[in-house]
């Protein structure tokens, strides 16, 4: 990126540095609303349909857990790892994730609207219909994953990177961006909100691909 004759660098996102202590096995039958979970490993747990809204997870690992319709609205995840989780309709509305790694997830219809993500790494896996409307993302990295029709409508993105990932049918309507790096996305498809890309950085090839949408946004007709 060049501005006023000088090359401008893009500030890199700060990645989480999760160092889990020795973990104890979670042995309860179900999650509880407003539960307090510290230093626990949830291994192959069937959490589908359970209600853990408002819970606090500190230094925890959720590995290969089923999260279909699990209610975790307004839950807080701190210094934790979610590895190989799967599910449809997981409710994380208004949740807070800080220093969290989400690895190789297979999720669909995840509700993260109104959430706060800070120093979060999403690596590998596939997430369909990710709802991040009005969320706040700071120092977030999407790496080597597939995002199908993610919704960033009205979200605030600061130092967010898309690296070696596929983004299809994204909605950025009304989003506000600062230091958002899209250059290394292997596929970048934007269905709505190309006018909200101010504050983002794209590659020359991506500019060519987005040219029709950008022309339509300003009412420009291209006639051979």
Question: Care to describe what's here?
Answer:
It is elongated and about 65 Å long. The chain has one helix at residues 204-217, and strands at residues 2-3, 6-7, 24-25, 36-38, 40-43, 56-58, 61-63, 76-83, 86-88, 96-108, 116-128, 136-143, 146-148, 156-163, 166-171, 176-184, 187-192, 200-201. The strands form two sheets. The protein has a 16-stranded parallel β-sheet that branches. It has a two-stranded antiparallel ribbon with strand order 1-2. By secondary structure, it is mainly beta.
Please sum up the structure shown.
By secondary structure, the protein is mainly beta. The protein has 1 helix and 18 strands.
The biggest sheet, with number of strands, parallel, antiparallel or mixed sense and barrel status, is: 16 strands, parallel
Q: Helical segment tally?
A: 1
Compute the separation of the termini in Å. 30 Å
Compute the average pLDDT.
93
What's the β-strand tally? 18
Helix content bin = under 10%
Would you identify the regions where 5 or more consecutive residues have pLDDT less than 50? 1-7
- The share of residues in extended strands comes to 35-45%
What is the helix/strand order? EEEEEEEEEEEEEEEEEEH
